[in-house]
Write a sequence for this structure.
């Protein structure tokens, strides 16, 4: 299959974005995209009607295979599993990757909620809602009828309906995150309690590699006590900054000058509903 350099540059971000949204793993998505292109080069060009459709089907099916095997791995994972945070500083408006990363369905909250979906539900939701594939295209990709795809999409939407546009308002959420940092650093318990929902839950992902809570921490008193306990044990060179994490404001924590933790939030009605702490070094970007 002959793919020009321009086509490669245009299609690679789309394929990565599909696979990453389905898997929540940067490394696995990158491997699948590379594998897809290598296999595509061996295909007879005359048999392919649409390169884009063909490659999207390949990357979706390979992602589905990985998802099914990942079910077992996730069951064996030590502690809560958080999607791998994606830190991207893209300045060019015409960068294809920036276009795809700005689409919906990228936040850590959204990706984590997708863990409640079956592999087919996840594929249909990503392709239909984020990338606006037609039901005819979906039927061809996952090899189900169009009517079945509609039902799968409706079922998937109902399972993660909590995430909406207002909960992803960047500037509002950034203001709340900055207030959270100030309250956290200055141990302003009253402010911290105002920012956290009564039903807040904290997911601390250490993967058994570094110390972390092995179960989700729920309720306002427990989460606030846990956070303040972390602060009391923090070394003097503890440093934080706010960065774009999966399209939303997140907190990057450094210890001894090294990135040690990425914290993301799910914010609803100006209250923090979920906190996702990713400490597993295998999920942290190298060199940040």
């Amino acid at each position: 299959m002959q793919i020009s350099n321009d086509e490669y540059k245009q299609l690679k971000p789309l394929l990565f974005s599909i696979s990453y949204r389905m898997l929540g793993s940067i490394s696995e998505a990158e491997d699948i995209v590379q594998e897809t292109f290598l296999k595509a080069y061996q295909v007879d060009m005359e048999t392919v009607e649409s390169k884009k459709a063909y490659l999207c089907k390949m990357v979706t099916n390979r992602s589905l295979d990985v998802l099914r095997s990942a079910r077992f791995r996730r069951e064996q994972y030590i502690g809560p599993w958080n999607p791998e945070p994606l830190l991207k500083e893209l300045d060019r408006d015409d960068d294809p990757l920036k276009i795809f990363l700005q689409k919906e369905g990228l936040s850590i909250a959204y990706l984590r909620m997708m863990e409640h979906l079956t592999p087919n539900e996840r594929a249909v939701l990503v392709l239909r809602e984020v990338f606006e594939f037609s039901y005819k295209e979906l039927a061809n990709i996952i090899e189900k009828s169009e009517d079945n795809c509609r039902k799968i999409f409706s079922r998937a939407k109902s399972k993660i309906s909590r995430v909406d546009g207002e909960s992803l308002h960047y500037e509002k959420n950034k203001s709340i995150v900055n207030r959270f940092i100030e309250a956290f650093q200055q141990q302003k318990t009253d402010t911290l309690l105002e920012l956290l929902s009564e039903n807040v839950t904290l997911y601390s992902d250490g993967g058994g590699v570094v110390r972390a809570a092995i179960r989700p921490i729920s309720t306002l008193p427990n989460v606030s006590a846990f956070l303040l306990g972390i602060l009391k044990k923090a070394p003097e060179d503890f440093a934080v900054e706010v960065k774009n994490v999966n399209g939303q404001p997140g907190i990057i924590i450094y210890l001894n000058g090294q990135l040690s933790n990425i914290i993301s939030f799910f914010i609803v009605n100006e209250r923090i509903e979920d906190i996702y702490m990713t400490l597993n070094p295998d999920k942290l970007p190298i060199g940040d």
